[in-house]
Specification:
Layout (H helix, E strand, L loop, with lengths): L5 E6 L2 E6 L10 H15 L6 E6 L10 H7 L4 H19 L5 E5 L3 E2 L1 H8 L2 E5 L3 E3 L13 H8 L1 H10 L2 E3 H6 L5 E3 L4 H13 L3 H14 L6 H15 L2 H11 L11
Parallel strand pairs: 2-3, 3-4, 4-6, 5-7, 6-9
Antiparallel strand pairs: 1-2, 7-8
Length: 263
């Protein structure tokens, strides 16, 4: 696909999806939403891809919604607003449910819907100068569509504060509340992301995919006989899988597994 608002690159097993509207601080509109949704569905189904990195060109990661798009939304009917929000929800779901691990590379300001993008990723690394803000209530709005992902990422207590106050907070604070997994100085950002990508690519692609699904399905569930039965079934299936058998054999034989044999 010829993207208008993104750059998509493939370097070996690493796909990079770059928000590419630096002139508007990578604020997104309906075109960006459709293109991100398409990109993550396409890359998720591409056998060449092992890891996806979501980053942004320019000084800001994402300023949230594009102002011109917001002006257009001001005149929407209820039905149009619901359809528009459904497209945003589909984009976030495409990232969150992507079968490939997704790493967010946050190099600058990350506001409103931009925080939804980061929260939908599996792992987030932020440069220390980055600033975060859930600014919706300043505009008389609420961060409704992004809330399932943001609350999962930062927890209910932090969400209660930042949803209500619309305060800006630092990358260090984002790390403290668990919204991001790591911070670093600007010049180390690519190295920090690269180290995580290297760790991900060292593992069984099938096991990484199933581990991602495991966290999504088990998190927050009560420990019931049904959940125990489900997890028993999952380990039995993956033990019998080709990569599961190969991984154990290679460990016992003190050699690289087949998915690393060429490295």
């Amino acid at each position: 696909m010829d993207y208008q608002t993104l750059q998509v690159e493939l370097n070996g097993a690493v796909a990079s999806v770059w928000l590419d509207r630096p002139e508007v601080r990578n604020a997104f509109n309906d075109t960006t939403i459709a293109e991100i949704t398409h990109a993550f569905h396409a890359l998720g189904g591409d056998e060449r891809v092992g890891v996806i990195v979501l980053g942004a060109r320019g000084a800001a990661f994402c300023a949230g919604a594009d102002l011109n798009w917001m002006k257009k939304m001001a005149g929407y009917s209820d039905g149009e607003n619901r359809a528009d929000a459904a497209q945003l929800a589909a984009m976030l779901s495409a990232i969150y449910t992507c079968p490939k691990p997704v790493v967010a590379r946050v190099q600058g300001d990350c506001y409103a819907g931009g925080m939804g993008l980061v929260a939908a990723c599996d792992i987030a690394v932020a440069a220390e100068p980055a600033q975060f803000c859930l600014s919706e209530v300043k505009l008389g709005l609420i961060p409704a569509t992004i809330s399932p992902y943001v609350i999962k990422a930062m927890g209910e207590n932090a969400a209660r504060r930042y949803f209500l106050t619309a305060e800006r907070f630092s990358a260090i604070d984002a790390l403290r509340i668990g919204f991001v997994h790591a911070t670093c100085v600007d010049e180390d950002l690519d190295g920090a992301v690269g180290a995580i990508v290297k760790s991900l690519l060292a593992n069984s692609p099938n096991a990484v995919r199933e581990a991602k699904r495991l966290v999504r399905d088990v998190a927050g569930q009560p420990i019931t006989p049904a959940l125990i039965h489900d997890t028993v079934g999952r380990i039995a299936v993956i033990r019998a899988s080709s990569e599961g058998r190969e991984g154990v054999r290679s460990f016992l034989e003190k050699r690289k597994p087949s998915w690393l044999a060429q490295t």
